[in-house]
Design brief:
The protein has 10 helices and no strands. The chain is mainly α and about 240 residues long. The protein folds into 2 domains: about 110 residues, no CATH class; about 120 residues, no CATH class.
Length: about 240
């Protein structure tokens, strides 16, 4: 009976901590409209890669029939901030980069993508004039396409990881603050703030806050698993 009671209490604690994590994530989402920098976390890596793949022509002019580099970045940032599907974002970025390619910026772009500058320039010239590509030009353009795809995949995956890590960290900080405030609210009538900050109750509040965000997605599964384990052990005892 004692084992069952302790397991029940433990399950309740896990569920409560998971609920705290869910509340922290929800509060973070509510903060985003008044703190737009949160949605821009991670875009710096994308900006760096795309900037290297959209160099200006001589005189800092944009290629004909293409967005200027600054507008390309603004478009990609808007998609990032709005949470557009990652695969769609990479496809859009790739299309804008290929549209930006011209004979004037091909050498710089070839250096960024590590392809033959002469062949890439010739490919850009032929594409602009509507001339069919030679086999060598076609091969060079295909290699350029594959390299750009790989570079974009890497930068978007890394940026997405940075964004997720930062938002988890921010949610954890919110959970710790909520747990600490909740603990002090309970004990405020019994001790001063300075005493609370050095008490075991404050330590337990910090622990609950730190565990909240990792447990939030799996708290229900853990609770269900523990309940199942208790029921199984009871059957063994009969």
């Amino acid at each position: 009976m004692n084992f069952e009671l302790s397991m029940t209490q433990f399950t309740q604690i896990i569920t409560a901590i998971g609920g705290l994590g869910t509340a922290a994530f929800g509060l973070l989402e509510a903060i985003k409209p008044v703190c737009p920098l949160i949605n821009r976390i991670g875009f710096g890596g994308i900006r760096k890669t795309v900037s290297s793949l959209t160099p200006p022509e001589a005189g800092a002019k944009a290629p004909i029939n293409a967005l200027p580099s600054a507008k390309v970045l603004e478009s990609l940032e808007a998609n990032w901030v709005n949470g557009t599907d990652l695969a769609s974002q990479k496809a859009i970025a790739k299309s804008l980069i290929k549209l930006h390619l011209s004979a004037g910026n091909a050498p710089a772009l070839a250096a960024a993508a590590n392809v033959d500058p002469t062949l890439l320039t010739a490919s850009a010239t032929s594409t602009t004039s509507g001339t069919a590509l030679t086999q060598q030009q076609s091969d060079a353009y295909s290699r350029f396409d594959l390299i750009v795809t790989a570079m974009l995949d890497e930068c978007y995956q890394r940026s997405d990881q940075v964004y997720r890590n930062w938002t988890r960290g921010l949610a954890a900080a919110i959970a710790v603050i909520l747990a600490a405030v909740g603990g002090y609210t309970i004990e405020s009538g019994n001790m001063a703030l300075t005493s609370y900050l050095t008490s075991a109750d404050f330590g337990r509040a910090l622990l609950a806050g730190l565990l909240a965000t990792p447990l939030a997605p799996i708290a229900k599964d853990i609770s269900t698993a523990l309940a199942t384990a208790v029921n199984t052990m009871q059957l063994f005892k009969k």
